[in-house]
Amino acid sequence: MVSTTQTTWQLSGFGDEIDDDPAIQIAVLQALGANHIEVRSAWGTNIVDLSNEQLQALATLLNEKGMKVSAIASPIGKVDVSLPVEHEVERLRRAVNAAKVLDARYIRIFSFYYGDSVQVESIRDDVMERMRALADVAGEAGIILLHENEKDIFGDVPDRVLDIIETVNSPALKVAWDAANFVQVGVKPFDEGYAKLRPHLEYMQVKDALFENGHVVPAGEGDGDVLRTVEALKADGYQGFASLEPHLAGAHGLGGFSGPTAFGIAARAFAKVTAEAGVQTA
Q: 26 in a domain, yes or no?
């Protein structure tokens, strides 16, 4: 049964899953009804490695096309926790600069890899030290960091994500919800994570996955409880972004790829979910 009470969320998407060329990224997203883009890379270069000239060129292009930036999808925290604190602090400063140039409020981050022989509990203090340092930089800059749950990092399951948020205890550190990533570590997203993390949930990344093999599938076609989550967020009064990150053609350490056709499939699948839940996107 389709809900008749309407709520509007801002639709965005990871442009580099469409094409390396930001002009093509923008054109496809706008054709799918999005007025925002999540920037992870442009012209094949990661956001933290773009020169000031490239950032200015990207800002000009976005402005000309009437496109806004929902978030900087940085790779911060996708390094081994054994690296010095300043390593990621310095890279975050580059991401903050990109956020300022592109007029973005949010920066997506992670909570550090660790070796196969390392017990996750043993790195907790090191992770917290680094996350506090990152939150301090963001707070000073007026930026909000979004921690994304992902496999192989400290904050991969709801309890450890919550531990990070509560321990750092900073208004500059919030939660980005990724259902597919929870599924890939054996978590039932809604049943095991939603109630714990909803008070801190600031941003929704849209992808789904299957328990049986971890494969990423369009939203609503996997085990990520996407419809239940969208319905609950609507009921809770969520007014934030829903950012398409389909990963339908491949994934790697720093991101994924879909291409224009698969990205469109992902967008239409999510539109079916939001229509059932009575949520509009714009």
A: yes
